[in-house]
Design goal:
With 571 residues, the protein is an alpha+beta fold. 41% of the residues lie in helices and 19% in strands. The protein folds into 4 domains: 83 residues, GIY-YIG endonuclease (3-Layer(aba) Sandwich); 138 residues, no CATH class; 119 residues, UvrC, RNAse H endonuclease domain (Nucleotidyltransferase, domain 5, 2-Layer Sandwich), CATH 3.30.420; 177 residues, Nucleotidyltransferase, domain 5 (2-Layer Sandwich). It contains 16 helices and 19 strands.
Length: 571
């Protein structure tokens, strides 16, 4: 079933949010924000003559879309910025200097903390508020805070005796923290806490004072002062607005929400995972689980946590849930062991985290029908890619619902030194990171250098398959298809290994043949004939993703090995 654009356009809410347009392969090609998702997204599918050239070209490539609902347009603007940096869509205009929205920083690590604007988040004990889409409002509020609370403005931390105050001290713009008349640290700390409460939206005294000044100026017909106070009130509202898409105190975490399984969903339950990284909502994934009719949310969630995070290389320190689950302590222990540090499962009750949870719950309610269509479209793409790969490899039809286990191998070295090999595993179109493996090459030539790439690849493949045949639990599941990086020489070398080990059933080996831009353009079949991937676009996209992943994993491992050797040599 293809994604039904017209049906999903009818479901769009008239709410602020961010939309992501995708091509036929499910890749994000454009990210935008909207005050009303309904009116904005529909514009892309209006009459072509109403669109400019760039938008018309974009619209032709939109095969599906998704959206994330926010409470305000300001939140949508910040989330849009995050998602553009994450996906790098081809139709978005990119800032080459990678600037980001500014934050307000309170420098708690200093004896007399300051309030400053920054674009860099540091772990020096400071507290950050933001980010803020309206930079002008932020500048005005920082000036207002400094004036109203008479805060220190200079970056100097220590002052010699008989130090002369700067101009701010002479004109009374600060309390001269650089002199013997400085306020006590306790009294100054109370001011800073007042600033923090104001920025959190809890202290209304400053806004009330501005309103009083504005009304007084207006009655005195001092309209210039009244206008300045009005602008400051507007700026204060913008700066103190709660940003649920970016809460720095929340750190990095996942938010997992499940639906109950029922007959209406075809005995399936759906789990949505929202990713919060460095306090910022950065994306969302949808997952289906087979479940018996009537399975409760907490049962679905417990099963999902154990299965999903077993395949993740990065498990966050905290996972937010909307209700308690069975065997919570045991699952926490399992995830903590997998992550190598403590992982906490929490149902938030107070602070910033319930706001993030409510945002996720609202998003699920708004996008329920869309989520089903996106999952179905993804299944169709995966099925098409798997069928094409079966034909290319000469495999029989699918055995049940089990996806193909695809193993890809690559070698990396520096002039024959620090030679390493890697294996990455895909189950259908999904990465199976828990099955990835690394190998240090042992075979050497007469000069003591690592063997050439063909011999190194044979060594890696032999070690992997031999351990699987011997019953090694970490290698016992054999591949359905083996992919090697290269052409005829690599395929023949790999087939020598599989033949020598007498695999039963035999495992086909395919070579990934690259073009001048180092992208896989064709597969070399077991009978050494080239298969042009242009005839199978879904398979072309899958092979490209596998090629990029095995290259990334190999280079990352090689850099680590080489770096450790160089450090050891320096010692």
């Amino acid at each position: 079933m293809s994604f039904d654009i017209s049906e999903n356009l009818k479901r769009l809410p008239a709410r602020p949010g961010v939309y992501l347009h995708k091509d036929r392969f499910g890749d994000v090609i454009y990210v935008g924000k909207a005050a009303s998702l309904r009116s904005r997204v529909r514009q892309y599918f209006a009459s072509p003559e109403r669109l400019d050239a760039k938008t018309a070209a974009l619209a032709k490539n939109i095969a599906e879309f998704e959206y994330i609902v926010t409470d305000t347009e300001a939140e949508a603007l910040i989330l849009e910025n995050t998602l553009i940096k994450k996906h790098l869509p081809r139709y978005n205009v990119m800032l080459t200097d990678d600037k980001t929205y500014p934050y307000l920083k309170i420098t708690y690590a200093e004896p007399y903390p300051r309030v400053v604007k920054t674009r860099v988040l540091s772990s020096d004990g400071s507290k950050f508020f933001g980010p803020y889409a309206d930079v002008g409002a932020l500048n005005r509020i920082i000036e207002l805070i400094n004036d109203s609370y008479r805060l220190k403005r200079c970056p100097q931390k220590e002052f010699p005796k008989a130090h002369r105050p700067c101009l701010n001290g002479f004109i009374g713009a600060c309390d001269r923290c650089c002199t013997e008349d400085a306020p006590s640290p306790e009294e100054y700390a109370e001011r800073i806490e007042g600033v923090a409460e104001f920025l959190k939206g809890r202290d209304k005294r400053l806004a009330a004072a501005l309103k009083t000044r504005m009304n007084a100026a207006s009655e005195a017909m001092d309209f210039e002062t009244a206008a300045k106070c009005r602008d400051l009130i507007t700026a204060a509202a913008a700066v103190t607005e709660r940003q649920k898409v970016d809460l720095l105190s929340s750190g990095s975490m996942d938010i997992c929400l499940a639906t109950e399984a029922d007959a209406g969903e075809g005995r399936h339950a759906r789990v949505t995972v929202f990713f919060v990284r460095d306090g910022r909502l950065s994306g969302r994934e949808l997952h289906h689980l087979d479940a018996e009719e009537g399975a409760a949310k907490h049962e679905v969630m417990a099963a999902f946590l154990k299965q999903y995070y077993a395949n993740q290389t990065m498990i966050p320190k905290e996972i937010l849930l909307e209700e308690e689950i069975d065997d919570k302590a045991a699952i926490e222990g399992y995830l903590s062991e997998a992550a190598g540090r403590r992982v906490r499962l929490a149902v938030p009750k107070r602070g910033d985290k319930p706001a993030l949870l409510k945002l996720a719950q609202k998003d699920i309610r708004e996008t329920q029908g869309l989520a089903e269509d996106l999952l179905e479209a993804r299944r169709d793409r995966t099925a098409a890619a798997e069928e094409a790969l079966r034909q290319a490899a000469g495999l029989p039809g699918p055995a049940g619902d089990r996806p193909l286990r695809i193993e890809a191998y690559d070698i990396s070295h520096t002039g024959g030194d620090d030679s390493v090999g890697t294996m990455v595993v895909f189950r259908g179109a999904e990465k199976s990171t828990s099955d990835y493996r690394r190998f240090k090459i042992r075979t050497t030539d007469e000069q003591g250098k690592s063997a050439d790439d063909l011999a190194s690849m044979q060594e890696v493949l032999y070690r992997r398959l031999k351990r699987g045949l011997a019953g090694d639990k970490s290698f016992d599941e054999m591949p359905d298809v083996i992919l090697v990086d290269g052409g005829k020489g690599q395929v023949l070398a790999a087939e020598q290994v599989t033949a020598a080990l007498g695999l039963d059933p035999p495992v086909p080996v395919l070579g990934m043949v690259k073009d001048e831009r180092h992208r896989t353009r064709a597969l070399l079949s077991p009978c050494l004939s080239e298969i042009d991937l242009k005839q199978w676009p879904e398979l072309y996209h899958l092979i490209g993703a596998i090629q990029e992943e095995v290259h990334r994993f190999t280079v990352e491992y090689h850099r680590g090995v080489r770096g450790r050797r160089m450090v050891s040599r320096d010692k």
